[in-house]
């Protein structure tokens, strides 16, 4: 049950009557009531009337009694909305028998392609890949749970001129030694050695260029060596995804090479449509509205002056294939904010070419950077990018040490399980709990704290509830009547009813921090309830009611955290 939507739908006709046209009632949670409508304040200037008068007029037309809602004008023109206790109790009781906790499956399922993670072959994943992978995984989980057909695409960097250099270095090492080095996961060392050789040796440079020609021409041996690089890199990527506990698999890899044969057709079609123009020897498209610092039109270079293709051509070919072959109606690109203009131009060109048209829509889910304590881009002590595996392993070690220090009686297996769930959960939640367009500072102490807006705080709240339910000795009765003897019980009930509305909003916006924020509010409301409302020692009716509220809270926390890709624990 999405209460905000229900109240908005009830107030909308009344606002329309007063305004003479559609008006958004702007319903939200309120500190002074259960909800409030701010629509009258927004309408005041348009109608030239005091907002309190507008609010009072709206209430003369609003029909709210049948759903147990009382309303009053407050302050400068707010409409405060309060549910009757019985109506609120009945709504919460309705969640008990609903496996989806009031969140319906979508009535209009879409085919959604989510492009995320995207590491480069022969390079180790670094901290810069964390946000794309975690945000993309959460988006996939949420949209899948809502009933959409979701296609995961891990767009690997596995093609282009650097591979001539890498393959030639592989040849110099010998296939057996190279395979052993790569299988150990030390991809950066392999890449740096190839780069150093390329920069210092002209003969190696020439061999590398010829190797690129052979690769692009389909030379059998060169393709086999290239495949060795790709295969070993993919194995490494999968170990990282397993540690990070995300759903990407080998079936989701789709490298740039997969679109190589489609690129000439992209160029030909853009040319046929009159969109392709020569510029500096390259073939370009100039989408309207994009200019450089000098004010001149900004080109999207589709084919370079040497006849090769760059990222724009590959991205156009991929978009076209995802719409045409996969039947995508929503395209999500989880890529850092520095690529914002690139994707805006790609989408504009695709629209001009007719490959991207309603109802299909493409969205760039841009994100900010992870910063160190100094407020700068997170780097290792040597000034290099922090390896993602190292970051994740450190999180697990820190969380495991904390678990052991707080509970010395834990056996090794239990401590390790808690350490992994809490450590990885802390990393993910620190990322997902902030607006993805913002930078954030990696702060171990804050991330692993058992208080505040952190994963451990939510995981501990869940574990605490599970402990209460175990000690109760019996499951909460799903048909138990909900009783409000304390304000904290009522506050918890209102929070429980907010889950559906938040999930629906996140489905549209993919602002995952809204879901994280909701879960934190729910856990905070439960902790206040737990402190003020004894559960196991309460009288029979009150005990059953409080057990049911606790169980509903646990179910909601577990489901919400699962949508974010974070594990819950029965004990902590």
Automatic annotation (TrEMBL):
Q: How does it assemble?
A: Monomer.
Spell out the protein name for this chain.
Arginine--tRNA ligase
Motif 'HIGH' region, chain ranges: 119-129
Q: What reaction does this enzyme carry out catalytically?
A: tRNA(Arg) + L-arginine + ATP = L-arginyl-tRNA(Arg) + AMP + diphosphate
What is the source species? Micromonospora inaquosa
Q: Where is the Arginyl tRNA synthetase N-terminal domain?
A: 1-83
Q: Which PROSITE patterns match?
A: AA_TRNA_LIGASE_I
Keywords from the named record: Aminoacyl-tRNA synthetase, ATP-binding, Cytoplasm, Ligase, Nucleotide-binding, Protein biosynthesis
Which GO molecular function annotations are given, in alphabetical order? arginine-tRNA ligase activity; ATP binding
Compartments annotated for it: namely: Cytoplasm
């Amino acid at each position: 049950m999405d209460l905000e939507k229900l109240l908005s739908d009830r107030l909308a006709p009344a606002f329309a009557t007063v305004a003479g046209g559609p008006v958004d009632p702007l319903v939200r949670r309120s500190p002074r009531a259960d909800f409030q409508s701010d629509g009258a304040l927004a309408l005041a200037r348009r109608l030239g009337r005091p907002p309190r008068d507008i609010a009072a007029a709206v209430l003369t037309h609003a029909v709210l009694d049948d759903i147990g809602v009382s309303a009053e004008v407050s302050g400068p023109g707010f409409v405060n909305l309060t549910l009757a206790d019985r109506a609120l109790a009945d709504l919460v009781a309705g969640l008990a028998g609903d496996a989806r906790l009031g969140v319906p499956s979508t009535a209009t399922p879409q085919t959604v392609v989510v492009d995320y993670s995207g590491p480069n072959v022969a390079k180790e994943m670094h901290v810069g890949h964390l946000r794309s992978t975690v945000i993309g995984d959460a988006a996939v989980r949420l949209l899948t749970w809502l009933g959409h057909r979701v296609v995961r695409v891990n767009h690997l960097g596995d093609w282009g001129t650097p591979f001539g250099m890498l393959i030639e270095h592989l040849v110099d090492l010998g296939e057996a030694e190279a395979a052993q080095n790569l299988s150990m996961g030390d991809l950066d060392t392999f890449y740096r050695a190839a780069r150093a050789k390329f920069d210092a040796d002209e003969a190696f440079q020439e061999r590398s260029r010829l190797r690129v020609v052979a690769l692009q021409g389909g030379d059998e041996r060169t393709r086999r060596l290239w495949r060795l690089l790709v295969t070993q890199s993919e194995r490494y990527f999968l170990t990282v995804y397993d540690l990070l506990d995300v759903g990407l698999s080998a079936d989701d890899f789709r490298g740039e090479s997969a679109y190589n044969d489609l690129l000439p057709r992209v160029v030909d079609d853009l040319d046929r449509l009159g969109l392709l123009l020569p510029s500096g020897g390259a073939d370009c498209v100039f989408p309207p509205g994009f200019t450089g610092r000098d004010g001149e039109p900004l080109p999207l270079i589709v084919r370079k002056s040497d006849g090769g293709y760059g990222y724009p051509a590959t991205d156009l070919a991929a978009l076209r294939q995802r719409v045409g072959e996969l039947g995508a109606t929503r395209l999500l690109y989880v890529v850092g904010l520095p690529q914002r203009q690139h994707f805006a131009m790609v989408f504009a060109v695709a629209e001009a070419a007719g490959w991207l048209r309603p109802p299909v829509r493409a969205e760039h889910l841009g994100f900010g950077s992870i910063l160190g304590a100094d407020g700068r881009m997170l780097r290792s002590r040597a000034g290099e990018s922090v390896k993602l595996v190292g970051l994740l392993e450190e999180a697990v070690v820190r969380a495991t040490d904390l678990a052991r220090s707080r509970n010395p009686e834990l056996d090794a297996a239990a401590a390790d399980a808690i350490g992994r769930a809490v450590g990885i959960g802390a990393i993910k939640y620190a990322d997902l709990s902030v607006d993805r367009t913002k930078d954030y500072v990696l702060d171990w102490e804050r991330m692993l704290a058992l208080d505040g807006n952190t994963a451990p705080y939510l995981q501990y709240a869940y574990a605490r509830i599970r402990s209460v339910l175990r000690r109760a000795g019996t499951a909460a009765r799903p048909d138990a009547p909900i009783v409000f003897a304390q304000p904290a019980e009522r506050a918890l009930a209102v929070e429980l009813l907010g889950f559906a509305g938040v999930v629906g909003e996140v489905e549209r916006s993919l602002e995952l921090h809204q879901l994280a924020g909701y879960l934190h509010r729910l856990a905070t409301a439960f902790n206040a309830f737990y402190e003020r409302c004894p559960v196991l020692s309460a009288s029979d009716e009150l005990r059953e009611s409080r057990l049911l509220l606790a169980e509903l809270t646990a179910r909601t926390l577990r489901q919400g955290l699962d949508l974010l890709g974070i594990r819950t624990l029965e004990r902590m």
